């Protein structure tokens, strides 16, 4: 991405491509222009509609306070326009569509019959579009579905369980949703495919990419018998932050999320965390407490996750209705965090809850500011209340094995 | 035990042994005369005091309605007297005390300084006396204690975890309470002893017995460095039902109960169940879901048990205060169950809750009677409500490996 100067790719008066005026194509253009984590872009397009938003992007007029909607500021809008303009040259939704159609794919946009109901829970963080390959109906497949996720660095135990869950869900006619990654994800998809059950892979790259390369055959099978889905247009590369954003789609599309194996700071925990934040039930498969690959699962079990030992127990999760879904939080929890909140965060313990009063000492801040900081952190999903005190929510980081 | 005819061991006018008049010795006599599971005996002695109760037992007068206290009936009292009289000949608390003192032991009675506070939670099901060996103060040892229990048929994994918990608790200065059985219990005690930490074994036989025989050296070490406790007088044999009763003492004496490994129907679950019923926190150590030896733990984790992976997490259980301890239930859940309740019980599923309405069909009883039966079953701790329906509480059965 370019820096922060305002880039004006089109000269004033240059004519805009005709797809700008087509709302569906314009929407697809935005899925190229903005990163999945770019909440500013979603807000910008949401307020103006995709075509008008593109026209504004192409206009050389300086940003004025008058044009800002609620939640926007001149400064942030100026930065946003510069960011999106930097991808203008690469953007051609007609070419992207052609590429997808050549692969037998299709796009699904918000409001389309195939758009999964659960994505509405993302509330402002919904994807611009889904690029889809495979014979199943996406909305129908998500209707009775379990996300089976876990670490890439899985053990033989974990992979065995994941594939048994996929088989069991398939046998019950339920859909296995996962991320097609190495380890748990792949095993879950394979189990589902083996049982002839529906399965959906949500990728962190274009649906034309075979990533990870060793899963090329699996992805091909998923395109033929299941579904492969991405919010990124064809050709997009898998990038670290895209995996975290992808996780929110898995969490929202599935009826419940089950973590099979996850290290202490595994990225799979972020999927569970997302699911929980939007009010979806979560489960975790236990393992030997001597296995670092199960530490994240045990951590979840010490919180709200239900202990899952087979597919029928996973399906029971679908019957749980959360009385109090936590409010959806922005896509990037650390984004927009004040210095104050950051300082308070450093003083919040990872596991054992600590009272606001005792955070005062650790943070070196007055109680009033600690309270304000905590409120901010809770809003960002970084801190959770527990037993009258406060502790950190699981970190959203990509799998790195055992951290601490 | 003899049948049900009224046995009159002392002829009318024969003089009673002098210990009958000594309240402490009379109390000890009752711990010989009545089985731990004999609630009727506790009620009988509770209403009259131990000496007067013995005098009534020795009297040949037929039972009259006039002498019955609340909760007693002529019929039940007649049976009770016959039952207790059948052990009269074996009863000599002075001899029992001599035997205990010869081993360096002592007795602790309700109200004594060493009587563990937690036993009061048993509410009508407290033991008559505790026969104790070992250098520790029993009440002090129970103050900050965790029951570490589990299957006799433990795996190497389970034994390793149990001994690590014992070590960790000992390092933290907390007491490991267990039952000195093969498998998990022994490993927990050994860990505690290895760390020099306090540990208490509660036996289902006399404290002079080395049971299981292969734990003779362990029991010796416990007598020298920890505590060995039983509600049964010296010489008493370990019997199946005594193990279940022993479990209630472990659950009540400890601050919290952690199950390390337990099969689907392991007796260790009864300890957790007891702890839960009297409002004590319970924890369970997860294991591979492929291991039958962890099935009971996972079953607990799907209920109220907290996931425990180390000693510090076990100690955190002590901070949990249950807002709503379930009401204590009688010692023997099936005791006094009506035919109606028994019929309803057969129709209540083991795991997946079923509505009262759907139990109607299965039980072949009108809804009103099903409701009455369910109420009875809940009172007996045999059935628990879940998600608007009903299912069975874990069965209280001695360890038999994997059932189902």
TrEMBL record, chains A, B:
Gene3D superfamilies: 3.40.50.450. Pfam families: DNA_processg_A (PF02481). Residues 107-318 form the Smf/DprA SLOG domain. GO terms for biological process: DNA-mediated transformation. InterPro entries: DprA, DrpA_SLOG. Belongs to the DprA/Smf family. This is DNA protecting protein DprA. It comes from Quadrisphaera granulorum. The lineage of its organism: Bacteria, Bacillati, Actinomycetota, Actinomycetes, Kineosporiales.
């Amino acid at each position: 991405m370019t820096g922060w100067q305002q880039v004006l790719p089109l000269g004033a008066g240059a004519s805009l491509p005709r797809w700008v005026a087509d709302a569906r194509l314009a929407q697809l253009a935005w899925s190229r222009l903005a990163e999945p984590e770019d909440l500013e872009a979603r807000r910008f397009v949401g307020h103006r509609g995709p075509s008008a938003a593109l026209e504004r992007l192409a206009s050389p007029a300086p940003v004025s306070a008058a044009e800002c909607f609620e939640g926007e500021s001149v400064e942030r809008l100026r930065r946003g326009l510069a960011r999106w303009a930097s991808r203008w040259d690469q953007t051609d939704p007609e070419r992207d569509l052609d590429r997808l159609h050549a692969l037998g794919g299709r796009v699904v946009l918000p409001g389309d019959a195939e758009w999964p109901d659960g994505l509405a829970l993302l509330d402002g963080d919904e994807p611009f579009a889904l690029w889809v390959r495979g014979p199943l109906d996406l909305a129908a497949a998500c209707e009775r579905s379990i996300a089976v996720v876990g670490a890439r660095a899985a053990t033989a135990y974990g992979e065995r369980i994941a594939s048994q869950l996929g088989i069991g869900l398939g046998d019950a006619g339920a859909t296995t949703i996962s991320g097609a990654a190495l380890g748990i994800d792949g095993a879950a998809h394979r189990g589902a495919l083996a049982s002839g059950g529906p399965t959906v892979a949500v990728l962190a790259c274009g649906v034309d990419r075979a990533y990870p390369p060793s899963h090329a055959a699996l992805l091909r099978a998923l395109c033929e018998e299941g579904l492969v889905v991405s919010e990124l247009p064809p050709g997009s590369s898998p990038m670290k932050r895209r995996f975290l954003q992808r996780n929110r789609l898995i969490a929202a599309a599935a009826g419940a999320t089950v973590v099979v194996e996850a290290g202490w700071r595994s990225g799979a925990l972020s999927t569970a965390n997302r699911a929980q934040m939007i009010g979806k039930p979560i489960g975790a498969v236990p393992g030997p407490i001597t296995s670092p690959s199960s530490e994240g699962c045990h951590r979840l079990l010490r919180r709200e996750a239900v202990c899952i030992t087979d597919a029928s127990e996973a399906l029971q999760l679908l019957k749980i209705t959360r009385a109090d879904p936590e409010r959806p939080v922005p896509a990037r929890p650390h984004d927009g965090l004040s210095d104050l909140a950051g300082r308070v965060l450093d003083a919040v313990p990872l596991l054992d809850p600590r009272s606001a009063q005792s955070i005062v000492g650790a943070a070196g801040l007055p109680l009033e500011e600690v309270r304000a900081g905590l409120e901010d952190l809770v809003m960002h999903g970084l801190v959770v209340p527990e037993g009258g005190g406060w502790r950190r929510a699981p970190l959203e980081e990509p799998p790195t094995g055992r951290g601490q």
